[in-house]
Write a structure and sequence with these properties.
The chain has 285 residues and is mainly β. Helices cover 1% and strands 52% of the residues.
């Protein structure tokens, strides 16, 4: 069920720039808001109410939206629509206005009032969703179930990567036998392609009441790196020389992609960008 509230203000705009030709027409606030469901959220679109006179100027739309627990996000758009990713949010409040800018200087000439709206998404029954890739080919994902979730609901995870769909191999369950996590092994990721996770919540007593939540990540953001490999230690010119090689990774193996920390006994860790570290040996006092 989609719940939408809309407030539309009609306003005669005020000129904001000196020396620009006067615009006789008022600028109406955006209207006729439409929301279309999308895999990752919704596509928000509107009627700009732009007249022929106004079309001679550079038109932009200022969109500000805010989820329940997040900071405001401000965007300036040329198109009359925006795809808003919901993630695990249950909706958002937003406002949009039209701005006319000079084609030469992009100074603001006039702007409309705001059109405000609130979108209430279907209920979200999970929170704190997170995943980690470790040892190159192992994946763990976990999530928490909200207290308001239906008692008979069950939770299923799949993901899509490089045009293939994968189902969870092994679920972690809680004391109520609800799925709260997933482990998969022998899975491989192309670091250039994002991973699209899908959690489907199925109410066992009502097969029509299924909800799906989507999250997208780049593989590198999820990877827990292994320690460096081929570590060697040698003594040279009264110094300890430590060498190593980068660990296997699903991302780039270029030197510039890694930083390291070296810790010797009880000394403070040292940040190193190369694949070696030399520590001088001091004579005892």
């Amino acid at each position: 069920m989609l719940l939408l509230s809309l407030t539309w203000y009609e306003m005669i705009s005020v000129s904001l720039a000196n020396g620009e030709p006067a615009i006789t027409a008022s600028i109406m606030a955006p209207s006729d808001l439409h929301i279309v469901k999308h895999d990752f959220g919704v596509i928000l679109s509107w009627n700009s109410n732009i007249t022929e006179e106004i079309k001679t100027y550079y038109v932009k739309y200022v969109l500000i939206y805010k989820f329940d627990t997040a900071k405001e996000i401000t965007e300036r758009l040329q198109e009359k629509e925006k795809m808003i990713r919901l993630g695990l949010h249950s909706g958002f409040h937003a406002k949009v206005k039209t701005q006319l800018l000079s084609k030469e200087s992009e100074d603001i000439i006039k702007e409309s009032n705001w059109t405000e709206f609130t979108y209430k998404a279907p209920p979200v029954y999970i929170q704190n969703f997170s995943c980690v890739i470790y040892n190159i080919s192992n994946l763990n994902c976990t999530w928490d179930i909200k207290t308001e979730a239906p008692e008979d609901a069950q939770y299923f995870l799949s993901y899509r990567h490089s045009r293939e769909e994968f189902q969870c191999q092994l679920y972690f369950t809680n004391a109520k036998n609800k799925n709260i996590g997933c482990h998969m092994k022998e899975v491989y990721f192309n670091h250039a392609n994002k991973i699209r996770f899908n959690i489907t919540v199925k109410e066992l007593s009502n097969s029509s009441e299924n909800h799906s939540y989507y999250k997208k990540f780049t593989p590198q953001r999820l990877e827990k790196l292994n320690p460096p490999i081929n570590v060697s230690i040698s003594l040279e010119n009264r110094s300890i020389k430590i060498n190593w090689k980068p660990p296997p990774t699903i991302g780039s193996a270029k030197k510039k992609c890694f930083t390291y920390q070296v810790k010797i006994t009880d000394l403070e860790p040292v940040d190193v960008s190369e694949e070696e570290y030399v520590h001088p040996i001091h004579d005892p006092a």
